[in-house]
Structure formats: structure tokens, C-alpha cells
Specification:
alpha/beta; nine-stranded mixed sheet; six-stranded antiparallel β-barrel; 9 helices; 17 strands
């Protein structure tokens, strides 16, 4: 499928550089399979779902995975964005100025943190081995910054406030290098209202990698290679999801990360299997959804894999019309922006 079918023009002023406060004050565009679009707010979510429905959240926690340093013994500045953990001391990283880096080079980052560039991969990324005895998480807290998307970081500096703003209230398990941004809208007040409405909540873990948000450089979707991410759905969560759906409830993924893992774990009979491992699922129009019945998600970049995903769920023309509506009505876009609720 042609990638340019998922393109649209977004005025730069529609890109949110900070989240709204409080978090649940964000707007939410409700898109159903047919009928007019509804301009609502995130706080309306409990009224838009039914008792017995299930919201599925991602409890991954964003680590400060953006590192700036230089090659040991040289002046070449090297930037590293970690995107997938290999073991306790090794991460695969996208490298800025990678032409200046060779296998075996030592990288020196801030705070006395060093790493060895062990192996170069076909896509230009490297496996980095972090030296020393301290856990890598401790090293990253000392030397790293929050890996804000370039459309934010390119317009303002990353600051201390982002350590709080770019983390969801559900963040528990270290490993993501990008936030599951649909969950950034949730507050304890909203969660209490969801519980009071009889809507079930479940957690899975998908450690979001930077590869999810890379631009699609191919002209055709068949030529795009997705990066793998690690995820887990426990047997207990799978059982509760299947029971809820058997009782007539809908499974609503909160975020494309939750959706991608649910679809990776879904069987042909639309039940959810326990899952632990890597997924590189790439969802484009024509895909038959088995794991979810709806999606709460922010607004995505033109020609991105996530724009293709929401188009697969709702139909490309429906989503292009929804995005035109959102732009015309001045919704805020991308990671710190407003939300949408997609109910096919």
C-alpha cells in the first residue's frame, strides 16, 4: 500500500509542546464507525463506555534513554538513543554521527558513564555494552535525559519537568524509551470515576522502542521493516480479558502499544493468549482485528506506522476525515496533545 495515502498537512502550531494541566483536562475526539464526530473531553470517558468494558493499560516506565557523549580519545560528538534491551548490560541504540563510530570504540557519556560499541547492525544501530558494576538504570539516571520525540525536543530543550510529564501514572516496569502517551491523560480522579462506572482495568507491559516512531522511509508499506519490542501479558490478565469479553464486554486498548501487544497475543477465535517475548507486528489497512474492540489514542504523525494502524481500525477515509476535523477544531497533536476514542 502506498505510504503517501497516509499523509496530511499539519500546521506547526497544532503540535503540543507541553501537556495540559490537569492531565484529564485534555480534549477527546470520539470517532465511531459512522455518524458525526463528537467533540468531548477525556473526563467523559466513563460515560462513553459501558459497564463490563475493559480498559487495557501499559505499565511500562520510560527510562532516561537519551545520551550525549563522545568517542574516547577523540572529539567526535556521539548521540545515542537506546531502544531495545538485550541483557542486563547491553542495549541496542540508534546512533547520531554513527559514521564516526567503529566496533570496539569506547563511548564516554556524562557522569563518568562509559560504553563499548560492540556491534553495528544493518540499520546503522549499535549494540552498546555499559561498563562498570552499577546497574544500567543507575547509570542512565546519572547521564541520560528523557527521550522526547524530535518534534518536541527540536523546538525546546528537555527539562526536569519532562521527567514527570513524560511518565504515566501507571508507570512501573523500567524499559520503555518512549511513553505510552494515551495513558498520560489519566489521573486518580479519572481512574476513580472509571471504577465507579463498572469499567474494568487491566495491565500489560510493552517496553516501547524508538523504532515504533521512526518515519516510514519506504514508498510502499510492504517495504517497511518494524523494530521488535518486548512485551508480556500474564495468564491471569489473559483469563480476565477473555472472561470479560465472553460476558459481553468490549476490550478497549489505551494506546497503540497496548493494542499491538493484544493483537500479537490474540488467537483466531478472538481470545487472548498469555504472551511473553518480542513483537514486531505491523498493522495496516486490511488487517482483521482479533484482540481489541476499540482504541483510545493520541493523534499521530503523517505517514507513520501508527497512522496506518488507526486507519486499519477505522478505515483510511474515516480517519483522514477525523484528522481534518481535529485540525479544523484546533485539537493539540502528538505525544503531549489531545486524545481520541476510536470505536469501530
Amino acid at each position: 500500500m502506498r505510504v503517501d495515502l497516509f499523509d496530511f498537512e499539519l500546521p506547526p502550531e497544532r503540535i503540543a509542546l507541553r501537556p495540559v494541566r490537569p492531565r484529564d483536562a485534555a480534549r477527546m475526539l470520539v470517532v465511531r464507525g459512522e455518524g458525526p464526530f463528537e467533540d468531548r473531553g477525556v473526563r467523559d470517558l466513563p460515560q462513553l463506555l459501558n459497564p463490563g468494558d475493559v480498559l487495557v493499560f501499559n505499565d511500562t516506565r520510560v527510562i532516561p534513554a537519551q545520551l550525549e557523549g563522545r568517542r574516547a580519545g577523540g572529539e567526535a560528538k556521539i548521540g545515542a538513543t537506546l531502544h531495545k534491551r538485550e541483557d542486563l548490560r547491553r542495549w541496542i541504540a540508534f546512533i547520531r554521527n554513527a559514521k564516526r563510530l567503529k566496533e570496539g570504540d569506547q563511548l564516554v557519556f556524562g557522569g563518568g558513564v562509559t560504553a563499548i560499541a560492540e556491534a553495528r547492525h544493518a540499520d546503522g544501530s549499535f549494540t552498546l555494552f555499559f561498563e562498570g558494576e552499577e546497574p544500567v538504570e543507575v547509570l542512565l539516571d546519572r547521564a541520560g535525559t528523557m527521550p522526547l520525540p524530535p518534534y518536541i525536543a527540536g523546538k525546546r530543550g528537555v527539562d526536569a519537568q519532562d521527567r514527570e510529564d513524560y511518565q504515566t501514572m501507571f508507570a512501573e516496569k523500567d524499559g520503555a524509551v518512549a511513553a505510552p502517551t494515551a495513558s498520560l491523560h489519566f489521573t486518580q480522579r479519572l481512574v476513580d470515576a472509571i471504577d465507579a462506572a463498572g469499567i474494568q482495568r487491566e495491565m500489560l507491559t510493552l517496553h516501547v522502542g524508538a523504532g515504533t516512531f521512526l518515519p516510514v522511509k519506504a514508498d510502499d508499506t510492504d517495504d517497511h521493516q518494524m523494530h521488535a519490542e518486548w512485551g508480556r501479558i500474564t495468564p491471569e490478565v489473559a483469563d480476565r480479558l477473555n472472561a470479560a469479553r465472553a460476558a459481553g464486554g468490549r476490550i478497549i486498548a489505551v494506546g497503540t502499544t497496548s493494542l499491538r501487544l493484544l493483537e500479537s497475543a490474540a488467537r483466531e477465535d478472538r481470545t487472548i493468549a498469555p504472551f511473553e517475548g518480542d513483537t514486531a507486528i505491523f498493522i495496516t489497512p486490511g488487517y482483521r482485528f482479533k484482540g481489541v474492540d476499540g482504541l483510545m489514542t493520541n493523534f499521530h504523525l503523517p505517514k507513520s506506522t501508527l497512522m496506518m494502524l488507526v486507519s486499519a481500525l477505522m478505515g483510511r477515509e474515516r480517519m483522514m476525515a477525523a484528522y481534518a476535523h481535529a485540525i479544523a477544531h484546533e485539537y493539540r497533536f502528538y505525544s503531549y496533545g489531545d486524545s481520541s476514542l476510536l470505536l469501530p
